[in-house]
Specification:
Number of strands: 0
Number of helices: 15
Largest sheet: none
Strand content: under 5%
Order of helices and strands: HHHHHHHHHHHHHHH
Radius of gyration: 21 Å
Shape: globular
Number of domains: 1
Helix content: over 70%
Oligomer: single chain
Length: about 280
């Protein structure tokens, strides 16, 4: 939140401070969510439109045969002869790496960013318990992220209808919703780092490094027998192709639960943390 927004929170009674904080953070994030949603939606829409230019499925299979088998396995590309398989390989395989930066940037600035701006004392000077600052920012960011993926899905599915590509609403919804828990997890990790460190840059760098390391571990584990056993240590091992196979509820719920645990640890860390003026 910017200083003006943070100052307005004091107008609310202590009983409604959490709701007030969530609403203010949502308003502050609205513009960014719109930009992210439209940008990713247009990218997905361009890929939907480009599917028609490849002709029949046999032509797509010939293109796939030209790629090294190891590269296809590393990126989880199995079938690009259908629109679902095409989008799985071209959009949703890498989408978490890009979209995760929305909650990472937002959550990294929740505590450490406010401290760097000198606004944390304004927040703590209001009748807002420390745990509400952590929980409120997390809930608001999770809701903003949900708005981003909804906008992305609507644009992608709407384009499929316009260009007469057989992409169902159910597959579109599953594909974008499956992005949510993975991105929320890295946002929660950024929030924890924001509560542990006094610099926003560290709260961004640490989850970003963890994210790319996990992605690389999973990709290499697909093609290397020596590393295959380490794949369950990567969050991306549990990120499945929902646009083709639907949402894996166990993985979805497990990742969300892990994110909640990180937030609870962040609450404990922030309660014990000293604030630098």
């Amino acid at each position: 939140m910017n200083p003006k927004t943070e100052a307005r929170v004091k107008d609310y009674s202590s009983g409604g401070t959490l709701v007030a904080l969530i609403l203010h953070v949502l308003r502050w994030q609205a513009r960014g969510a719109l930009i992210w949603g439209v940008s990713l939606g247009l990218y997905a829409a361009a890929l939907v439109a480009s599917f028609l230019s490849f002709g029949d499925p046999q032509q797509m299979e010939q293109i796939m045969q030209a790629y090294p088998e190891g590269m296809l396995e590393a990126f989880g590309i199995s079938d690009m002869g259908t629109i679902e398989g095409y989008l799985a390989g071209q959009v949703f395989n890498l989408a978490p790496l890009a979209l995760a930066f929305f909650p990472i940037l937002a959550c990294a600035g929740a505590i450490a960013g406010a401290e760097e701006r000198g606004a944390i004392d304004i927040l703590l000077g209001n009748p807002i318990p420390r745990w509400q600052l952590v929980i409120g920012n997390f809930i608001a960011t999770a809701l903003s992220l949900l708005a981003v993926i909804t906008l992305m899905g609507v644009i992608m599915w709407g384009t499929a209808i316009l260009v007469d590509v057989d992409l169902s609403l159910e597959a579109s919804a599953a594909a974008v919703l499956n992005l949510w828990p993975t991105c929320v997890f890295f946002g929660a990790l950024a929030l924890l780092c924001s509560c542990l460190f006094h610099r926003r840059s560290l709260a961004i760098t640490v989850p970003a490094i963890v994210m790319f390391a996990m992605y690389l571990l999973d990709a290499l584990g697909r093609v290397s027998e020596d590393l295959e056993g380490f794949r369950p240590a990567s969050l991306f091992y549990y990120y499945r192709s929902a646009i083709e196979d639907g949402i894996d509820r166990a993985s979805f719920g497990g990742i969300v639960a892990a994110a909640v645990i990180l937030v609870l640890v962040a609450v404990l860390a922030f309660r014990r943390r000293e604030i630098y003026a």
